[in-house]
Amino acid sequence: MLALFWAEISYQARGLDTDGLRSGFYIINGVVYAMQVLVWVLLWLNPNPSMLVLSKLFIAGLSFSAALGFLLYGGRLFLMLKRFPIESKGRQQKLSEVGRVATICSC
Q: Where are its TM segments located (predicted)?
């Protein structure tokens, strides 16, 4: 949800349409959750080492994708805030907040 929020802010600041972001986010989440349930069911029905490896690879790939999302949209928002005038109210605080959260979530 945080990456979606940052993506919406980034798109709105550039004057782009955000209608497809939310529905795309929900569709992607639904597919990922369905795949996770399928992996769990397959692992429960056939608990062999290859299914265990597949399950671990799925979680690793999902975590990597989430980290990329945080880096991409958090980085864009950070750079956008950095370009704001220095006199902007709350700029420095928001800049450090976005930078910290993007770094922590990506790690």
A: 24-45, 57-79
Q: How far out from the chain centre does Cα 97 lie? A: 16
Give residue-wise pLDDT tens across range 7-64: 787 778 778 888 888 888 899 899 999 999 999 998 899 888 888 998 899 999 999 9
For the CA atoms of 54, 57, 61, 63, the dihedral, rounded to the nearest 10 degrees, stands at 120
Q: Is residue 58 part of a domain?
A: yes
In whole angstroms, give the CA distance from residue 25 to residue 91.
28
Question: Which pTM value belongs to this model?
Answer: 0.69
Q: Which SS3 state, helix, strand or coil, does residue 43 take?
A: helix
61: in domain: yes
Is 45 inside any structural domain? yes
pLDDT band, very low/low/confident/very high, at 69 (cuts 50, 70, 90)? confident
Work out how many domains the chain is built from and give that number: 1
How many helices (DSSP H) and strands (DSSP E) are in the chain?
Answer: 4, 0
